[in-house]
C-alpha cells in the first residue's frame, strides 16, 4: 500500500483498538449528506443526522478491504487527530494507474468540500 508524506506523518498517531468493534460504513456525497452547495468538514461532522465520523483506523481497514476501485477517491470522514490546521487532518483512499493509495490530507477549517466529494461515514 502506498502512502504520501502526510500519511507517513499521520499513521503513527492512529490509535488501534484492541477489541473488535462492528461498524457500518457507507459512502455518501457531501450533497447526499444534506449540503447541496458543499460544506466545511466540521459543519458536516456537526450537523449530519444518522451518520458519524469514522475512527482514523477505519481508513486503514477500508484501504485493505477495498481492493477493487469503487471511485477514484473517497475521503474517510473523521475528526481531526490534532487541532493544528497545518497537521494532516485525515485520510482518503485513491486509486490511479500505479495502484491503490492511502493518502492523508491537510485542510484548513474553512476549506469547503464540493457537493460531489465522496465521504466514507459511519451509519448510526
Quickly describe the structure:
This protein has one domain. 17% of the residues lie in helices and 30% in strands.
What is the structural class? alpha+beta
Total domain modules: 1
Could you tell me the strand content as a percent range? 25-35%
How far the N terminus sits from the C terminus, by CA atoms, comes to 29 Å
- Give the helix tally: 3
Tally of extended strands? 9
Radius of gyration, in angstroms, nearest whole number: 14 Å
The major β-sheet equals: 7 strands, mixed
List the helices and strands and how they pair.
Elements: E1 2-3, H1 5-10, E2 25-29, E3 39-40, H2 41-46, E4 51-52, H3 57-65, E5 73-76, E6 90-96, E7 99-105, E8 112-113, E9 118-123
Parallel strand pairs: 1-7, 5-9
Antiparallel strand pairs: 2-9, 3-8, 4-9, 5-6, 6-7
Name the features:
7-stranded mixed sheet, globular
What does the model show?
The chain is an alpha+beta fold and 124 residues long. The protein has one domain (2-12, 23-123). Helix content is 17%, strand content 30%. It contains three helices and nine strands; from the N terminus they run βαββαβαβββββ. It has helices at residues 5-10, 41-46, 57-65, and strands at residues 2-3, 25-29, 39-40, 51-52, 73-76, 90-96, 99-105, 112-113, 118-123. A hairpin with a 2-residue loop joins strand 6 and strand 7. It is globular and about 35 Å long. The mean pLDDT is 87.
Amino acid at each position: 500500500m502506498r502512502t504520501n508524506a502526510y500519511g507517513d506523518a499521520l499513521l503513527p498517531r492512529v490509535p488501534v483498538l484492541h477489541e473488535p468493534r462492528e461498524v457500518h460504513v457507507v459512502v455518501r456525497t457531501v450533497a447526499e449528506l444534506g449540503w447541496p452547495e458543499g460544506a466545511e468538514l466540521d459543519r458536516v461532522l456537526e450537523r449530519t443526522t444518522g451518520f458519524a465520523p469514522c475512527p482514523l483506523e477505519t481508513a486503514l481497514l477500508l484501504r485493505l478491504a477495498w481492493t477493487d476501485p469503487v471511485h477514484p477517491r473517497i475521503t474517510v470522514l473523521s475528526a481531526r487527530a490534532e487541532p493544528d490546521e497545518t497537521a494532516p487532518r485525515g485520510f482518503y483512499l485513491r486509486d490511479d494507474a500505479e495502484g491503490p493509495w492511502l493518502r492523508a490530507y491537510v485542510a484548513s477549517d474553512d476549506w469547503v468540500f464540493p457537493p460531489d466529494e465522496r465521504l466514507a461515514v459511519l451509519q448510526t
